[in-house]
Specification:
Helices cover 50% and strands 19% of the residues. The chain has 464 residues and is of the alpha+beta class. It has three domains: 150 residues, Beta-Lactamase; 98 residues, Helix Hairpins; 154 residues, 2-Layer Sandwich (Heat Shock Protein 90). Strands 4-3-7-6-5 form a five-stranded antiparallel sheet. Strands 9-11-12-14-13 form a five-stranded mixed sheet, with helices on one face. The longest helix has 49 residues. The protein is rod-shaped. The structure holds adenosine-5'-diphosphate (ADP). Adenosine-5'-diphosphate (ADP) binds next to helix 9 and helix 10.
Length: 464
């Protein structure tokens, strides 16, 4: 999987498309260099060998007395001819009858030249050894003879080896340097793409603002424009959804509240025997209103509906106080000691979402804490300057195994009392996500009860 993903990256493709052809080209050039260098060296050695053969031919003569062919090679010249520090040099001169005029008879086994009056160079085998030979078939009106000069190939092999080393190492270094340059070049050249990816990755889920085309490499222009069009469409759709949801919330809230009030009044006006039925109707209506409200709040705060552009600085203390006054009656009814400790803390966010979040946390604490208990809501900024909200109670607590799942939609811990919907903490989580905040669940003070802590990102320092 990792490898497949890797082969699909532009960087990998570029590296492959550049490195392999480069390697092939450099490989071919190395072989070509080697061959031409070997060719030049071999030519020099071959010239020496042909010169010797020609020198021997120039010394051929016919004996005037017995008309035999002779070759005038004084012992000193013979020694010079055969003197070579590395190779063994031999020669033979013979006439048309195969009679050896001078030199080593064993060379007669070597192939003879097929052309006349021209030196012929070739490789040959003799006694299991490779030899390089220069042969010359001389024919004139006066005489005809053949000269073969042969030498072993020790210095040629050594020269080939030296040339190979002299060519291979610099070329290998060149290849390594070229590959490194390509690698870093490609990395460097693709950096703007990484930066573009990072910029997109850093965005919050509801951030549909267009990407700046000027900051992206020219080749990505069509891509950036397509992304921007998509973002624009999502933004428009999100806004339409927001408008619809907030209208729906408003339109549903009013008649449901009216229905509830009418039912409250009806309970008081009815004779006692008819009251229980209407009371049940009133309670069901209350639950329906609560559920409708929670559903719409969740939908409005979900990533598709929430728009980051609606964010403004919101003072958390004010929201905490509003939640306190809204839920005071419920707390009083259960004789719960509802306390607030507020310190200034401002979050850049959506006011209604943060209000929903705090209301859900405080309401849960009041709901699940037994009568006579304690609920404390705190807001402020921690040591790093990060704003936070904390709601602490001394109720039954939440088992650690359940602390992940309670944020799922419609999830309720088994045996939980009350007529909850299982949506309250899902809303808290959505709102936290929209604000890039983290929610922590723990035991309350003294290890009893529950503590929810929502920590928002610390504000970025203002540019100097
Ligand atoms: P509900 O509508 O059931 O309250 P929530 O999503 O708000 O839905 O909460 C999910 C579950 O988490 C609840 O059913 C309850 O069991 C548990 N819970 C939430 N807050 C508290 C709390 N303060 N103390 C104990 N249990 C809690």
């Amino acid at each position: 999987m990792g490898r497949r993903a890797e082969t699909r990256t532009l960087r990998h493709r570029l590296l492959m498309f550049i490195s392999w052809p480069l390697l092939v080209v450099l490989g071919i050039s190395m072989v070509a260099d080697y061959r031409s260098a070997i060719g030049i060296a071999a030519e020099a050695y071959d010239n020496g060998l042909s010169s010797t053969a020609i020198a021997l031919v120039s010394r051929l003569e016919r004996d005037d007395d017995d008309l035999d062919i002779e070759v005038d090679v004084p012992p000193a010249a013979d020694q010079i001819l055969r003197s070579d520090t590395e190779d063994r040099v031999q020669y033979v001169v013979f006439d048309d009858h195969g009679k050896v005029v001078a030199g080593d008879a064993e060379l007669l086994a070597l192939p003879r030249p097929e052309v006349v009056n021209r030196a012929v160079l070739q490789d040959a085998q003799l006694g299991g050894q490779t030899l390089r030979t220069a042969s010359f078939r001389y024919e004139s009106a006066a005489l005809a003879a053949t000269v073969i000069v042969a030498e072993t190939t020790v210095k040629r092999t050594r020269a080939a080896h030296r040339i190979l080393m002299a060519i291979v190492w610099p070329n290998l270094l060149l290849i390594a340097a070229a590959l490194l340059l390509v690698y870093f070049g490609v990395r460097f050249a693709l950096r703007p793409l990484d930066a573009l990816g990072e910029r997109i990755g850093r965005r919050g889920p509801g951030d549909f603002s267009p990407l700046a085309e000027a900051d992206a490499p020219g080749e990505t222009g069509p891509l950036v424009r397509a992304i921007n069009r998509l973002m624009g469409n999502l933004d428009t759709a999100g806004r339409a959804q927001q408008v619809f949801l907030s209208n729906a919330a408003h339109q549903l809230r009013t008649p449901l509240a009216g229905l509830q009030t009418q039912l409250e009044l009806a309970v008081d006006a009815l004779p006692p025997e008819a009251r229980p039925r209407i009371e049940r109707l009133r309670d069901s209506t209350r639950r329906l209103a609560h559920f409708t409200h929670q559903m719409l709040a969740l939908a409005r705060s979900s990533s598709e509906g929430a728009l980051i552009s609606d964010h403004r600085p919101v003072e958390l203390a004010g929201l905490l106080e509003a939640a306190a006054s809204d839920l005071l009656d419920e707390a009083l009814a259960k004789r719960i000691d509802l306390g607030f400790e507020t310190a200034p803390a401002t979050v850049d966010g959506s006011r209604w979402m943060l209000r929903e979040m705090i209301a859900n946390l405080v309401e849960n604490a009041i709901t699940y804490t037994p009568a006579g208990g304690r609920v404390t809501a705190v807001c402020g900024c921690d040591e790093s300057g990060a704003p936070f909200v904390e709601v602490d109670d001394d109720g039954p607590g939440i088992p650690p195994a359940e602390r992940e799942r309670i944020f799922e939609r419609f999830y309720r811990v088994g045996g939980s009392g009350g007529d909850g919907t299982g949506l309250g903490l899902a809303i808290v989580k959505e709102v936290a996500d929209r604000h890039r905040a983290e929610v922590f669940v723990d035991s309350g003070a003294d290890g009893r009860g529950t503590r929810f802590r929502v920590v928002f990102p610390a504000p970025e320092p203002a540019p100097a």
